[in-house]
Amino acid sequence: MTEPPVSSDTNNLQENFEDFFEEALCGFIIADTKGSILKANKKLGGWINCSTDELKSKRFSDLLTIGGKIYYETHLSPLLRMQGFFDEVVLELSSNNNQKLRVMVNALERRDKDGKALFVRYTILKASDRLQYELNLQEAKKIAENELIKEREMVTLREQLIAVLGHDLRNPLSAVTMAVDLLISSGKNNDSLLGTIKRSSSRMMELVNNIMDFARTRLGQGIVLDREDTELEPVLQQVVTELKLIYPKREITCNFKITEPVNCDSFRIAQLVSNLVANAITHGYADSPVHIYAFHNNGNLEVSVRNNGGPIPKELQENIFSPFTREIDRPSRNGLGLGLYISSEIARAHNATLSFTTTAEETCFTFQMNS
Amino acid sequence: MVVKRNNVVVKGKGSQVIIFAHGFGCDQNMWRYVAPAFEENYKVVLFDHVGAGGSDLSAFSPSKYNQLDGYAADILDIATELQLNDIIYVGHSVSALIGIIASQKSPGLFKSLILVGPSPSYINDGDYIGGFTKSQIEELLESLDQNHLGWSMAMAPVIMGNPDRKELGEELTNSFCRTDPAIAKHFARTTFLTDERELLSSVDIPTLILQCSDDVIAPQSVGEYVHQQIKGSKLVMMKATGHCPNLSAPEETIDAIMDYIL
Q1: What ipTM describes this predicted complex?
Q2: pTM
Q3: pLDDT tens across A204-215, in order?
Q4: Does B242 sit within 8 Å of A73, measured CB to CB?
Q5: Do B149 and A59 touch (CB under 8 A)?
Q6: CA-based nearest distance A74→chain B, Å
Q7: Residues from chain A contacting residue B168 (CB–CB below 8 Å)
Q8: Chains A, B: CB contacts under 8 A, how many?
Q9: Using the beta-carbon criterion (under 8 Å), do A78 and B244 form an inter-chain contact?
């Protein structure tokens, strides 16, 4: 079927319309107005493994798969009758050996001067590759649309972040400003006001640091560590001392047993523990003490922070380490929702884990680093 | 609102009402060669099912139109809104069944039913030859889901880019058989999974069945089955081939209907 016909007069092949019809680069069908095939070319027969004589006993829609057949009878045939033609319609031919061939079909109903239908011509083009390409494009479009949705969500979160950041920075900043004004006008030392300044500026520093860390992790750099062997106990003591200064009314107990130097970024570990303790204080009951445990055994470090503040709501638990996860009903307590995200990034940079358990009696966050 | 929802068009000089309901795949244009012949002596009512032609696509609800009942309810709405009664109902393809359902929901509303290429069920079942095997219908539904045939193609793009056929006015050029692709898929599912065979025996108004030759959607055996089940019905075998005699053989279709209702 694919062999070009041998002609005694090959010189005249290019003028030969019979040859042009049979060996065209597309399938041709001529059918009567009832759809019965009068003539089909060899090219088409070859595609569906059917001789041109066999084709003559069929209707055009007999060549189609079942979906195409119903589509043809209910949509295309009416359209052809009303409009006189249809163009670029995708259909599937079903070959004699049950192979499916995806094609693009144009059809024209030839009519006489009075508009009476005479016969129908179909041109059939192979379209498998083109349709595959189309499918790929549709797939790519779907992916791009999903990406866009995600990006839009991200943009919304960023905008919320800016709003919260602005809001949260304004309060401590005005407190500092007022305290400084008062100090200046009173002309003497005032420990309480100094404490306020210390707390507020620390809080602002924390917010700004968090934002910068967040930006860095989002820009793909992650948390960059500066690791060295460190005596960790004094570092943790310092964290506790600072937090006690900020929250003088809260009870913080320490239970440390770190006998040898730990290889880590001590500044980042301090930041992580400070985040966990500050979280425990803000979310815990006011009269509930915060317990910090730190143990170092055979190179394995475990730091946990425990307190009681009621169980963490279920819907929060799943995304607790994602950025911007905050308690919806108590937003004022929650800051930017970046603390736990950054803490988990710090743990990740150390090849360590940060996990939590939460019950009505106790919530416990645990940092675990194996040597 | 009903008039807008179903793009209802009323024409004709007579008082006897005749409704033409289009089938799956097209819109009221399906009747363009048939309906005009009735305008002289009848009140001709044409409409589009929701999802087709000029209907209000926003009125589509998958749960309402999961069954043919939803489409039948729309026809009753049209009758109520336009205060139609003693109706001659002409339904093509799936609308033949929709008409039967409507006639049973509102006894007395219809004077007679003219069913063009009706099929109460498309799937072969024992002695019943619906025309398709179960696996063929499954293949059809699969092709709908995968969308690799032209089902997804809105008709408009096919029709556009057609500047040289001026005899079709501009406004008609873009309005043949417009179907919303998603709704068409849903309608196909509802249509081809229908089995309303049990309904036929309770039809008790004069009924004419027009059966085409060589109709792959509703084969002759189905037309004969419908004729058998509906007591006192008349079956006319048409010379017209295919599933749409209203387009392929409008004169024969008009004559058969006229002959029955006069």
Answers
A1: 0.82
A2: 0.63
A3: 777 777 777 777
A4: yes
A5: no
A6: 5
A7: 83
A8: 112
A9: yes
Element (H, E) at A56: helix A52-56
Q: Which of A86, A88, A91 sits opposite B149 (nearest CB)?
A: A91
From chain B, the residues in CB contact with A135 under 8 A are: 148
Nearest CA in chain B to A117: B248
Bridge-based pairing of strands B207-213 and B234-241 is: parallel
What DSSP element (H or E) covers B222? Answer: helix B220-229
Res. B164: pLDDT tops 60: no
Q: What is the DSSP string of B48-66?
A: --TTBTTS-GGG--TTGGG
Cβ atoms of B34 and B254 closer than 8 Å = yes
Q: Is the pLDDT at B89 greater than 60, yes or no?
A: yes
Distance CA B259, CA B262 (A): 6
A242: pLDDT strictly greater than 90 = no
The helix or strand, by DSSP H or E, that contains position A88, with its residue range, turns out to be strand A85-94
Q: Residue A95 pLDDT more than 90?
A: no
Task: With CB atoms and an 8 Å threshold, state whether A70 touches B217.
Answer: yes
Residues of B carrying an active site annotation: 93, 215, 243
Q: How does pLDDT run across A258-310, given as a tens digit for each residue?
A: 988 999 999 899 999 999 998 899 888 988 999 999 999 888 999 999 999 88
Residue A359 pLDDT > 70? yes
SS3 A141: helix
Sequence-distant (≥ 6) Cβ neighbours of residue A116 within 8 angstroms: none
Rounded Cα gap, residues A266 and A244, in angstroms:
20
> Which of A61, A73, A82 is facing B29, going by the closest CB pair?
A82
Q: How far apart are CA A254 and CA B168, in angstroms?
A: 89
Instruction: Looking at the complex, report in whole angstroms how far the Cα of residue B118 sits from the nearest Cα belonging to chain A.
Output: 13
In degrees to the nearest 10, what's the CA dihedral of A32, A37, A41, A45?
160
Amino acid at A228: E
DSSP-derived pairing of the beta strands A290-297 and A37-40: unpaired
Tell me the CA distances in angstroms from A91 to A75, A134, A265, B133, B188, one per residue in order: 12, 14, 65, 21, 17
- Rg of chain B (C-alpha set): 17
Of B150, B161, B241, the CB nearest to A35: B241
Q: Who among A35, A74, A91 is closest to B25 (CB)? A: A74
Q: How far is B103 from chain A (nearest CA, A)?
A: 25
